[in-house]
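Please, structure for the following, as tokens.
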Amino acid sequence: MKQRLAKIAIATGLALAAVATSAPAQEFPDKPITMMIGFRPGGAVDTTGRLIAEKMSETLGVPVTGVTKSGGGGTVMAAELINSEPDGYTIGMGASAAYTLAPQLNSDLPFKIDDFDHLATLTYPSDAIVISADSEYNSMEEMIAAHKESGDPITFASQVSASRLMVAAISKATGVEFRVIPVQGGADGIKEVLGGHIDMTWSGSGWTEQVRAGTMKPLATMAADRMEDYPDVPTLLDLGYDFTFVDTFMLSAPKGVPEDRMAILVDAIEKAISDPAVQETLREKIGLQTKYRGPEETTDFLHQQYDAVAPLVDAASG
């Protein structure tokens, strides 16, 4: 009897072991995903990232948690992202300039475009060069002419490399000196201008709220085309400056994420950005336009932007 019970126990154990061995592993994702966000809280990139993270969580069934990794116009985040495990559990919310422009301006950056698996392009700003509503100037032409006559520099708050390249192009074309004051984010630049400490800043988002409140006025945009909601604001091209740049906001991952996990992430991202409530919030709250591109299109766009800004970088450094 004892021998029979022992045989039954052994057989049962072997059967359970066989079931455990053959049982499929828990599908991805089975734990929280970290979204590193390359800009400070409250700005356009941060707002986009946290809205998308919330919607991704609903689709994936696990938390997608935004963690601020700000600095260097998104390059601090990208430099950390490149060294993260390519398992799909760490992604990065940033801006195209960090991959296309910053490496051309700073050869010490430890990454290039193709060192990542780029997941999607999500939004782009209705950007503007803005000044205080109390300013005596009502156009870029007026401000440039006045400073050209006085010889006084224009103080400019800058948080991204594209805006520094922009003022270099304007300065070269006009002879007006710009004194660039680095700030940590667009909100800081706006605060400095509203406080009367700095003449001008570039903003990708928060300026729209200030303009509606009557505290700021836009002078120009870096975009190639005029903004739909602000058709009277000229582009720099309209004003005769050979400069245009659109810093698109996007999600990337470390190079080497398995294809099946990439597909799951991309599907969740596309569903999130396609949500009408998300699009309305982004447009109404901070003036962002949605522009979804998948992985291949996003990578192609980055290479196109890299090639487009290369002559501008050469001209600025020449």
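The chain has two domains: 33-126+247-317, 128-220. Residues 5-9, 14-25 have pLDDT under 50 and may be disordered.
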